[in-house]
Design goal:
single chain; alpha/beta; Rossmann fold; 6-stranded mixed sheet; 5 helices; globular
């Protein structure tokens, strides 16, 4: 009998303020004890390599939660959670994402588009994004993003501890 494993993956750049949100969250989560049904990974590297890693055992993860910072013009410091629903990326989108990946761009969108194209993401894939407050060169998150790391950690911990996929949690926006 195989165990269902949840992948929590951080995506982002280090040393770029709040754009380090995903990797910072992963670093903090790794300091805690988690059941064997939880994998905490920094997936802030070439999406093609991430896909190769997923291809090694395509049934390893039953669910994925990717955490990142993305500037989308929303309220700075706001958190947004959504389910990834692949719309079948066009050949141009896939090509653009692969080209960006090859040049070293770290992007959640590239990861999701490439993962969808190769059908390697778990059917249940969620995204948690923070709207960055800061994105300049330097160590550390803004005070708001630091609080958000704690909030996301508490939310994920409660869900995992309950063993439930349906723990009460914010709908689509956490502010």
């Amino acid at each position: 009998m195989s165990i269902e494993v949840l992948l929590i993956g951080g995506v982002g750049y280090t040393y770029l303020g709040d754009l380090s949100f995903g990797p910072t969250l992963v670093e903090r989560l790794r300091t805690r004890d988690w059941p064997s049904s939880v994998a905490i990974e920094d997936v802030s590297y070439n999406p093609i390599t991430v896909m190769d890693w997923l291809r090694d055992d395509p049934q390893r993860f039953h669910r994925a939660v990717f955490v990142t910072a993305v500037a989308r013009g929303r309220e700075p410091g706001s958190l947004h959670r959504s389910h990834w629903r692949p719309a079948g990326p066009s050949a141009d989108q896939v090509q653009d994402s692969v080209a960006a990946a090859v040049t070293g761009t770290i992007s959640l969108e590239n990861l999701l588009i490439i993962g969808s194209h190769f059908e390697l993401l778990p059917a249940e894939t969620e995204v948690i994004e923070i709207e960055p407050v800061t994105s300049g060169w330097g160590e550390g998150l803004s005070a708001v993003a630091e609080r958000r790391v704690s909030e996301v950690t508490a939310w994920l911990s409660a869900e995992i501890e309950s063993g439930s996929e349906s723990v009460a949690r914010p709908a689509s926006t956490m502010s």
